[in-house]
Amino acid sequence: MRVAVIGLGLIGGSAALALAAAGHDVLGLDPDPATREAAAAHFPVTADPAALAGTDLAVVASPFRHLAAVANETLDGYTGLVTDVSSVKAEPARLFAHHRFVGGHPMAGKETNGFDAAEADLFQGRKWVLCLEDDTDLADWTALAALWTSIGAHVVPATAADHDRAAARISHLEHLVAAALVRVADEPLARTLAAGSYRDGTRVAASPTALFTGMVEGNRAQLMAAVEDLAAELDAAAADLDAYTDRPNSISEWFDRSRALRTDWPVEPEAAQRIPLTKASLMELGAAGGWLEAVESEVALARRPRVKSTP
């Protein structure tokens, strides 16, 4: 497949490297001369959008604030399939509505950014959401699913709305909380004593601010709902702490429930099974938290999370 990757930062650069390694004809487009120079050692690069005309697929890996310009200017007149890698999905679907568009989001990343941080194996075994709506062209969706599974990603079918709600709770909220934890611990002794818990809980606070800004701009309503649910949990914990003298078991039960949920993650998969490549079967798989590991001619190799039996 002839693939153009627009934006050669961490995610776009990693996708381009992985696709090139898999034998695809990759063309990178980036406005930064230094980025183009670094990427040129691995695949052809350009700064001219006109060069995209001969490609089959455009992977948009530009910052969220630039998506409208990419949709209306960079890809003006483009007739190939278009996908993106943004961490929000409803807004890109609106921006690229006049293209053959299937939204995507690889659940992978690092605190560092730029092409120098890109890795060809960044997506190995990682989930990659592909949006599947009532009006999605199934052939286009399947072509992308085959492409991303071919570089080792596990493709999860989901609607844009379902993705954005989930992403607010397992990614966007975590960025907000990590930043808050850093601020709460901003005193000399606390920073000296900080160890593993602080490191793990605040890791994503080192991410570029523009990344989180895009999450807020594109998914603010869902993030606000997640913040409200988090506040309710913290209020419950605060009430248990306040009542510890009279009800010492309450806070322990609160922690026990969280511990049980965390111990059950990552989910253990069931044995792989083949499912038909129909919208109904794919949406049922995604709703159950399942994913595709390979795409064949008319079926896909799928896995679902194992449901633990209850006593």
TrEMBL record:
GO terms for molecular function: NAD+ binding; prephenate dehydrogenase (NAD+) activity; prephenate dehydrogenase (NADP+) activity. It comes from Glycomyces algeriensis. Belongs to the prephenate/arogenate dehydrogenase family. The keyword Iron does not apply. One of its GO terms (biological process) is tyrosine biosynthetic process. Residues 220-247 form a coiled coil. Residues 1-273 form the Prephenate/arogenate dehydrogenase domain. Gene3D superfamilies: 6-phosphogluconate dehydrogenase C-terminal like domain (1.10.3660.10), NAD(P)-binding Rossmann-like Domain (3.40.50.720). It comes from the Bacteria. Keywords: Coiled coil, Oxidoreductase, Signal. This is Prephenate dehydrogenase. Residues 1-20 form the signal peptide.
